[in-house]
Amino acid sequence: MELMMEGKYSEVEELADSKEMMRSFPPYNRLYLKLNCAMMQQKNKETEALLKEFETIRMNDSQRTALYSMAFQYYLPLEEQSLCADYKIKIDGLKGSEKLKKYADRAYDVVYKKDTSHLEELKAETAALPIEQRGSNDYLIAQIYKNLGDQDNQQAWMMQMQKDLAAAVDSSRNQSQQQNQ
Prior knowledge:
The longest helix is centred in the C-terminal third of the chain and has 30 residues, at 151-180. By secondary structure, the chain is an all-alpha fold. The protein is globular and about 50 Å long. It has eleven helices and no strands. The model has no long low-confidence stretch (mean pLDDT 89).
């Protein structure tokens, strides 16, 4: 995890493909590491190939939930409607996961149907969230302002998203350092 936070993606990929990792970790864990690297580097073709590779392995419900959520959120800002819709359908088919389903419905409506009705609800929810969990909502609020044609508020919320995501990375890095001590 530390290597990834330091941007040493090739080292993470090498580690995931090493014989030791192949013997010690199941395919899902190794692929998930590689998928994170590809997504963080915005390697779209590699991301798509890895997502297809996941279809060939067995996954439990929590693994499917994590994977589908990650793929949906990856494709959403890229405005890849058909790919995003595919993962929304997969999310809708998950057992439980009501919070994720609600998020996916709202996000899809905001980005692809240009829905603006969730603005106040999202603002209230976001204010109550820990800073590490605000980025997704910040993005949706910015998209709503875009849909409304309000560029000033759109830019303000995109900047807020960047701040909140940076805070989330810092928080994660601090937790990782504390665990290593």
